[in-house]
Batch of 2 targets.
Target 1
Amino acid sequence: MPVAWLIAWLLWNASAPAPTRNFPQAPAGARAADRDAGIKRGETLFTRHCPICHLGRPSESRPFIGRNLRGTLKNAKPPQEAAVREAIRKGNDRMPGYQYALTPAQIDDLMAYLKTYN
Ligand code: HEC
């Protein structure tokens, strides 16, 4: 009875789950833990590379070579974030660029930390 087979096949096919394009999402707790780990890595990178110029001794009248970066990314909009990332990547005449010293992922971590550095 080929018609019955055809109907059975159509029914089976219709009940098969539709292929999904969504990637599985990590649970919220895991995402928060990832974010915190990134901020922590960013803090380590910041402490290693930046304070020599961007922090100074409070006793000095001009403590900083570069300005204090506190609050740089406070409530920053995407264009402002992009500008800060570019400033870190390219540097300037008194600051080395970090585009070769740090990987893009490390610069992401540094940016994540700077957002909390207020
Ligand atoms: C050799 C000294 C030096 C080091 C090391 C250094 N900077 Fe700078 N940085 C400067 C100077 C000088 C400027 C430009 C003047 C200013 O903004 O204070 C500057 C500017 C910046 C700016 C732009 C500030 C603005 O107003 O938009 C950012 C962001 C920045 N630095 C981030 C960093 C980060 C992050 C690190 C560590 C990965 C770092 N810098 C390491 C000296 C340095």
Note: The CA atoms of residues 18 and 102 lie 42 Å apart.
Target 2
Amino acid sequence: MLAVCVHCGNIKRTLSAGCVICHFQPHAAEDKAKAFILSTAYEIDGEYRGMTREQLTAIGTAIENGHPYAFDQTEVQSVIAYAKRVLAVPPRRLVIDGVRWLLPPLLILMVAYLLVFWTK
Ligand SMILES: [Zn+2]
């Protein structure tokens, strides 16, 4: 995990932690989205959209040298929209999805268990 501090360019190990150099911690949705884009956690719907570690390190150095990263506002807005969509998934749907995923392997385990049990 690698994340660039949007404020000072410092390389951090976690997204959520505040920056040890400038103490900047993203709170606003837009700042969080920007921090997310400048990290190796940048993944949407299971697809990696982020940059390489080398690119992120180079961006960090540029920010450190007084060249703020030029965010694509469309990209920032789409990350915010994605975060809202993920948070808007009702807990009930998550439970149903969970059962759908868990049921087949559980059934297989039950059948396997019963087969082993009956052969003894
Ligand atoms: Zn910082």
Note: The pocket of zinc ion is lined by residues 5, 7-8, 10, 19, 21-22, 24 (CB under 6 Å).
